[in-house]
Amino acid sequence: MDILKLTGLFALTALTEIVGCYLPWLALKQGKTMWLLVPAAASLALFAWLLTLHPSAAGRTYAAYGGMYIAVALLWLRFVDGIALSRWDMAGAALALGGMAVIALQPATSG
What we know:
This protein has helices at about 5-30, 35-50, 60-80, 85-105. By secondary structure, it is mainly α. About 20% of the residues are buried.
């Protein structure tokens, strides 16, 4: 899988998990309609399915996915919650994405 497709798949996977967890938070903590649990469940089901599309073993996928999750969560913080990112947020995201790249893009081994 080429790097752009893999990066997009990681980002979409992270977004579906965040949406699936954010909607129940809105319903339970912010008093929004409980009907938000329906699209939340659908989003989490999509998240689980997207995980199966990743080309690596499950454990390696989860390890690499964590880096993208951090970056997408910080983008969510900025654009949905409206909170400005600090240089520490950006440095942490860069480190996490670097770790994701090391894990996800490692050379294939035989054996």
